[in-house]
Amino acid sequence: MLIQLYENMLKPRLIEEKMLVLLRQGKISKWFSGIGQEAIAVGVTMALKKDEYILPMHRNLGVFTTRKIPLYRLFAQWQGKASGFTKGRDRSFHFGTQQYKIVGMISHLGPQLGVADGIAFANKLKGNNQVTAVFTGEGGTSEGDFHEALNVASVWQLPVMFCVENNGYGLSTPAKEQFNCEHLADKGKGYGMESYIIDGNNILEVYTKVSEIAESIRKNPHPVLLEFKTFRIRGHEEASGTKYVPQELLDVWAKKDPIENYQYFLKEQGIINETLEVELKVKIAHEINEHLEVALSEDQIISDVTNELNDVFKKSVYQEVKHDSNSKEVRFVDAISEGLKQSMKRHDDLVIMGQDIAEYGGVFKITEGFVKEFGKDRVRNTPICESAIIETAMGLSIAGIKSVVELQFADFVSSGFNPVVNYLAKSFYRWQQNADIVLRMPCGGDVGAGPFHSQTNEAWFTKTPGLKVVYPAFPYDTKGLLASAINDPNPVLFFEHKALYRSIRQEVPIEYYTIPLGEATIIKEGNDITIISYGAAIHWALESLEKNPDISADVIDLRTLQPLDSETIYNSVRKTGKAIILQEDTLFGGISSDISALIHENCFEYLDAPVKRVASIESPIPFAKQLENQYLPKDRFEEELKSLLNY
Ligand SMILES: Cc1ncc(C[n+]2csc(CCOP(=O)(O)OP(=O)(O)O)c2C)c(N)n1
Ligand SMILES: [Mg+2]
To answer: How far is the CA of 248 from the centre of ligand 1 (A)?
Structure first.
């Protein structure tokens, strides 16, 4: 074991020395050096079992090498080649691998911590006594994600080890400009969490202490905060240098090199000698050269557009479940509640998380009674921390568990925006790890609730590749689409218009059934014009038609915005020659603009008039009734419809 620790530290050091040469030769793009910090990555990885997840950062090469990833695969990854882990789609350490139970970082640093919570939560649910280790630099601890992740881990007593590598700097920012307390470990107390300070340059201390702590977590699941004191000997990345670091500091820490000191110790103890040292170094150098040759001789990746587009979402076969004729009239809100409950029964590990969703039943009472039926493990009240909970959902997915997250109001997704658009959306494309998550988004106006409880913010997401966006308008569709969204292994934002919750009723099958995502419906047929809409606005369009029975219109309810059913739109517009799109969101940059462009590009010869978009005015959504009515396009629509018909 003592020699193994030594060899495992030598390997990343020698690889790095080689990489610095390749960097100068322009053969790799960027390099973040972990020289001087190897004891932490190696010690932690050695203290964990092979099947326990580790979530490393950019200075943790030792995690990857200690888990024995073949070196040519790492080299290929850094050169954007096919034997790497991301098919050339992401660089450096931005990848994960289920095979080696490593979940790599996204550039934003902090989200790793919440994802670790999710994996640890899955382990706790499975009762498998596993510990999860996640890394961050001391700079990353200033991010909100750090606070949220530690808080959730403590409240839920998750078996996770938060490993902070305090290496003195975050890029050029010294630790004293990053946080105002003596030790980061001191923060543990505030979170109600055990914490320890460990000499990060002493491999024996790292390995021994982390092994003990890991064992205690396995026996009794709980989170622990570890602060490893260490130092970043080289620049943030090679190009940025160390000019701003006082020479005295570099000198002091140079004497604390973890490998040199350990080597000295091993020799003094008679555990290794000069011959063995040279032997080990030659063996590793040999391995590096051999694997480098393999990677260098591999061709650069060539892929085509179809191939790239095919990898944005995980493929899944739509599971059609038909319903029988037993139905009853229910409200929109009941359809969601029933649908969710039936999915909870169908997927017996499906977890739902959200604020006040357990005993209280959620602010819209959709999960009322769920705790009683499914228990608190599967129906989780969460602290107020959208980022960490969405990251937790990602971690659950990595561990193979589906989840539904209820945003209390769709408006609040902005507090968890980063993990949605950067983690969930990009994960499958980057390293084939799907995000099996549904985010339920109670949204929309006409409820007199002002700028932060009335937005319909689907356009924030429809433009981000990797996300599916569903936005039903009727109870029947809602129930079937929710079931399919949950079955779908990809991240789905499921918009539920609050104004419809208790105002719209429909006959809805009692049993579980599915409706495919990505298919619009024509809810009314006519010849003179095509009306395209979704959500509450569909009902506004129908009201206008009721008032004007002489208007003969196709009414298309999109139901899903991403993927968009453009064929149904084109077929209708080719028949009617006119199209009007009604959208509740503000006009600029909304999906109606894209639909309009698509119609112009694909149906121009069939058009008898320019396509018309009708939407809310370009202001935040106001509170007072008169202002809100003026903001919404409800009343303007009829006028615009008539004017387009008369064009
Ligand atoms: C959200 C975000 N802000 C800023 C950056 C740029 N950035 C990348 S690494 C880094 C410093 C990180 O410092 P620390 O967490 O101490 O890790 P270290 O590099 O010292 O290991 C910065 C500022 C980023 N990647 N993401
Ligand atoms: Mg740092």
So the answer is: 24
